[in-house]
């Protein structure tokens, strides 16, 4: 079986078909080695041709809450009072560095995503971020 680089969508489709055929290959077999190589090629092609942007911090929090069946109350140790959690999740107040640290440490969330800028609703009573 010839393994070649994936340059176009037709190559990509053929590689996915090959993965389907090899999926149940016994570990350590030549077929499982081929599967591993093809998976690496597919991942590289997808990274180049179909990049997926990281979610914004609030979208990440919402996803984690849903996936882990967390309530807003569960975020209070990381973010603050019930009102503060509401302000953050409703994009009325941005996450602070301390909130980001606690979310990262206590919920094992990636800090590099939590620090990304994201849209918030402006509110005249709050000072502009420095």
Automatic annotation (TrEMBL):
Q: Biological process GO annotation list? A: regulation of DNA-templated transcription
What is the protein named?
Transcription regulator protein
Q: Where is the HTH cro/C1-type domain?
A: 60-114
An example Gene Ontology molecular-function term:
core promoter sequence-specific DNA binding
- Output the superkingdom of the source species: Bacteria
Taxonomic source organism: Acidithiobacillus ferrivorans
């Amino acid at each position: 079986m010839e393994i070649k680089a994936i340059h176009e969508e037709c190559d990509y489709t053929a590689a996915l078909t090959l993965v389907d055929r090899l999926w149940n290959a016994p570990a350590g077999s030549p077929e499982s080695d081929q599967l591993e190589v093809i998976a690496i090629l597919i991942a590289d092609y997808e990274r180049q041709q179909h990049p997926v942007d990281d979610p914004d911090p609030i979208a990440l929090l919402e996803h984690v809450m849903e996936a882990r069946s967390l309530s807003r109350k569960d975020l209070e140790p990381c973010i603050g009072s019930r009102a503060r959690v509401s302000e953050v999740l409703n994009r009325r107040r941005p996450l602070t560095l301390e909130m980001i640290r606690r979310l990262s440490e206590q919920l094992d969330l990636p800090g590099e995503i939590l620090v990304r800028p994201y849209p918030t609703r402006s509110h005249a009573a709050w000072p502009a971020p420095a």
